Amino acid sequence: MDHQITREILWNIGHQVRYFINPITLIFLVILGVGIWRRVKLWRLGQERSRFHLPQEKEIWLRLKFTLGSIFSHRQILRSSYPGFIHFLIFWGLITLAIGSATIFVQHQITEPLFGYEFFYGSFYLYFSLIMDVAGLAAIVGVLLVVHRRYISRPRALDNLPEDSLSLILLFSVLLSGFVVEGLRIGATKPSFEVYSPLGWQLAKMFSDLPLGTGGFIRLHRLLWWVHFFLSCGLIAYVGYSKLLHIFSSSLNTFLRSFEPPAAFKPILNMEERESFGATKLEEFTWKELLDGDACTRCGRCQENCPAFLTAKPLNPKKITLDLKKQMEIVYASLNGTRGPVPPLVGGVGIMEDELWACTTCLACQEHCPVFITPMEKIVEMRRGLVLMESRFPPEVQLVFRNLENNSNPWGVGLGLRADWAKGLEVNTVAEQKEMELLFWVGCAGSFDDRNKRVATSLVRILKACGVKFSILGTEENCCGDPARRIGNEYLYQMLARANIEVFKANGVKKILTMCPHCFNALKNEYPQLGGNFQVIHYTQFLAEALAGGRLKLRKPLNQVAVYHDSCLLGRGNAIYEEPRQILKAIPGLQVVEMDQNRARSFCCGAGGGRMWMEEKIGTRINRMRTEQAMQTKANYVGTACPYCLTMVLDGIKEKGLEESMSALDLSELVIRSL
Fold it and tell me: Under DSSP, is residue 370 helix (H, G, I), strand (E, B) or coil?
């Protein structure tokens, strides 16, 4: 009886048709392969990827595990819930249908003709039919939701191109024609068990009212079966020439993603021997960076989380990625003689200088990209090209470079005054005390900026309260080099960094505590690129541990409301989210609230990427928008853990005239008030 619960594979088409189907399918697969290979040739315009050599077997498996986990769980895509859910429906619907088609192929062309073995009957067939109908329906619902979102609700993040419409039409036609073919088959054969194909069953009931007769059903079924077959083959081939290529390119991009710290820029090695620096033309990017263009699905999450874009600056990370893709196609066409000279990479037909200088290197674009595209890295590479090859940068940056070269700090204050902030605090330098538990790296802001000198003083008092034996470098300390590197002056950065590394080694430094997240990131994640390997902690990590371990006790209540502003480099750059909040929660009487945009979604203060030293003349000031977000919480204190953030939030509060109701304080200052 169970063997009667089945259907004839290729019913009404004939078994001999496989001699036609297989070659036709192969032709369309070849067309797909040609399209993919064309894109591969475009990627190969780039250089070898220095940070991704042939991985060892263990690394391959780790990457494969990560990639498959990301693809099948949709964990990155579902971070934006509604569009993520839509993609989830389409993805799992199509995956299930593909597995079902492969299952039918296995019996029809392998197990049955070669081994006489059949499994496509009975309970397996019934549940198979049900799952396939549910999967197809899920995919259709997903496509309809995409159409509504893309063409009716039309969020700003999405742009519509003809290929989007064609992809959706093809996909919907394949799904709908598949169900129509199923309904016609059920309507002609009328098996009672096909209720397990609920959508096909309902369509069959609808078709029964048509004056077709059994012969009409059979002829129409045969015609539409071939229509469905060629639509399916056409969709497969079209993948290689459309946005649907992301099925392959986004998966490959995920597999090849960097697992290095996200805020650590790749170094320019052997600078003295090189003839070019950064990227002044497309071919100076790596092939992986060119792959990013084809991996991009134009979802717009990067732009909708970019502080520059959201404050009406000319920068749009999505546009940067797509402009580079366009430039890649122009270069390829020029090399093949199908078009004229290639326009400049910057200042040509796409990317403008103002776009590059608007970036705060806050990592928001890379944090929210579901397929691990890195617009920020490309922006810095183009900045390097402008600065080191063409001496093109905002005029105010010239003074910053000169100050860093002559006095090792962006303010230009005399190097000999670097330790003056510590007068009267009884703080030892390493020259006076080499035996220490840790080195307190003060940084330029703590040494020279009047407001942040008070933060450095607070940290000294806390370290002493904890009984920590520490020293500072004093006049031996140079700028960590972060501003120079992010602006694009890699040569100046390496000069400063190498000088600091030599000082650390000469003084036997092992463990470093930093006040500034920019210094923390440079010393922890970027100095190892130049041979400087040290244990580096940010003060919030130290404080959270000291409070948890009882080394530091807070007793005085602060009966106020506080909100914490996540620093980009501390949060997205180094995943330090909980320690600052643990510090605030340890303060008696302090009520801690959150801004809507917090942790990984935190909004930049506007000072990163060297923007601290540049004029902000276009659009709304970024720090103003962040201050407005803090205002909505009704907090008395805005807690920060970064000198740049403290300065920018203070400026925002003053601009809004909120000095009497709101104040910006470093977390160490709040701890001192409770200590």
Answer: coil
Read off the tokens for 125: 């067939």
Q: What is the pLDDT of residue 53?
A: 44
Q: What is the reported pLDDT for 3?
A: 74
DSSP 415-461: GGGTTGGGTTS---BTTT----SEEEE-HHHHHH-HHHHHHHHHHHH
Tokens of 430: 């390493």
Neighbours of 423 (CB within 10 A): 8
Is 552-674 in the same CATH topology as 410-547?
yes
- Check residue 343 and report its DSSP letter: P
Closest of 297, 282, 298, 285 to residue 332, by C-alpha: 282
C-alpha–C-alpha distance, residues 268 and 325, integer Å:
24
d(CA 187, CA 9): 16
Burial code of 54-88, b = ≥16 C-beta within 10 A, e = fewer?
eeeeeeeeebeeebeebbeebebbeebeebbebbb
The separation between CA 315 and the C-alpha centre of its own chain, rounded to angstroms, equals 16
Spell out the domain ranges in the chain: 53-254, 277-392, 410-547, 552-674
**HSE value, Cβ hemisphere, 13 Å, CA-based, for 307:** 28
**Tens digits of per-residue pLDDT, 317-346?**
999 999 999 999 999 999 998 888 999 999
Is beta strand 470-471 parallel, antiparallel or unpaired with respect to 438-441?
Answer: parallel
pLDDT at res. 326: 96
Token pair for 520:
């923390």
Q: 375, 319 in Cβ contact below 8 A?
A: no
Instruction: Please report the pLDDT score of residue 265 as a whole number.
Output: 95
Rounded to 5°, the CA angle 356-289-568 comes to: 50
For tokens 């910057």, the residue is 346
CATH topology of domain 53-254: Fumarate Reductase Cytochrome B subunit (1.20.950)
Phi and psi at residue 208, to the nearest 5°: -65, -20
Residue 1 in tokens = 């009886």
Q: Work out the burial of residue 18: count CB atoms within 10 Å of its CB; fewer than 13 is exposed, 13-18 middle, 19 or more buried.
A: middle
Q: Three-state secondary structure along 471-536?
A: EECHHHCCCCCHHHHHHCCHHHHHHHHHHHHHHHHHCCCCEEEECCHHHHHHHHHHHHHHCCCCEE
What is the C-alpha to C-alpha distance for residues 639 and 654, in angstroms, rounded to an integer? 16
Give the whole-angstrom CA distance, residue 294 versus residue 248: 9
Instruction: Tell me how far apart the alpha carbons of residues 463 and 475 are, in angstroms, rounded to a whole number.
Output: 21
Token couple for 246: 């992301």
Residue given tokens 């700003």 in the structure block: 156
> How far apart (Å, rounded) are the C-alpha atoms in residues 27 and 230?
12
Give me the CATH code for the 277-392 domain, please.
1.10.1060
Spatial contact of 263 and 56, defined as CB atoms under 8 Å apart:
no
Partners of 535 in the β-ladder: 511
Give the SS3 label for residue 52.
coil
Chain CA centroid to CA 226, Å: 42
For 542-574, how does the pLDDT look when each residue is reduced to its tens digit (9 = 90+)? 999 999 999 999 999 999 999 999 999 999 999
CATH class, range 410-547:
alpha beta
What single-letter DSSP state applies at residue 110? I
For residue 158, what are its two tokens?
Answer: 């999405």
Distance CA 579, CA 543 (A): 8
With a cut of 50, which residues of the chain have pLDDT below it?
Answer: 51-54
What is the per-residue pLDDT across 349-383, written as a single tens digit (0 to 9) for each?
889 999 999 999 999 999 999 999 999 999 999 99
Tell me the two tokens of residue 109.
Answer: 């062309």
- In CATH terms, the fold of domain 552-674 is Rossmann fold (3.40.50)
